[in-house]
Amino acid sequence: MGSGVAAAATSSIVLLGLSGVATGLGAALVTGEPGYVVTLKLAYLAHTPAVLVVASVAALLFGLAPRAFNLVWVLPVFGYLVGTFGPILQLPHWIGDLSPLGHIPQMPLESFAAAPFVVLLLVAGAAAAGGVTAFRRRDITAT
């Protein structure tokens, strides 16, 4: 279970970085400004803690109640819907704060904020550790 969580975390970080580089290359080719590669890579990597929270909640659900595992989809779907339609529907700001995606600064338009980054990493670490611990304690019979 621990190696699966670590593989999911590592691959998420790598894919976020590669997506940022690819988007930055496209922007640099169109605008002629090579600085977009680094700027957009960092902007994509700023989403790492939110992605790790979702993956860690999945691990926690799988460890505690495997039948409830599919409920993890509520987090990204809720985050997408509130992020997309929240401003249009004039939803209160606290509703967006219920999603881990709502705490990520919209880089490069907003500057990087360390506090939500660190807090989300701590939440992800706690959820992952809880999931691995709960998985170890499950009553699984071996054949």
Topology overview:
Layout: H1 2-31, H2 35-45, H3 48-64, H4 74-89, H5 93-96, H6 114-137
- Residue windows where pLDDT falls under 50 for at least 5 positions: none
**Alpha-beta classification:** mainly alpha
For the record, the count of structural domains works out to: 1
Radius of gyration: 17 Å
Q: Residue-averaged pLDDT, rounded?
A: 91
What gross morphology would you assign?
globular
Instruction: Give the CA-CA distance, first to last residue.
Output: 18 Å
- Total beta strand runs: 0
Classify the helix fraction into a percent range.
Answer: over 70%
Order of helices and strands: HHHHHH
Total of DSSP H or I helical runs spanning 4+ residues:
6
Major sheet summary line? none
- Amount of beta strand: under 5%
Please characterize this protein's 3D structure.
Keywords: Membrane, Transmembrane, Transmembrane helix. The structure is a single chain. The chain has one domain. 71% of the residues lie in helices and 0% in strands. It is built from six helices and no strands. Helix 1 packs antiparallel against helix 2, helix 1 packs antiparallel against helix 3 and helix 3 (48-64) runs parallel beside helix 6 (114-137). It is globular, with a radius of gyration of 17 Å. The two termini are 18 Å apart.
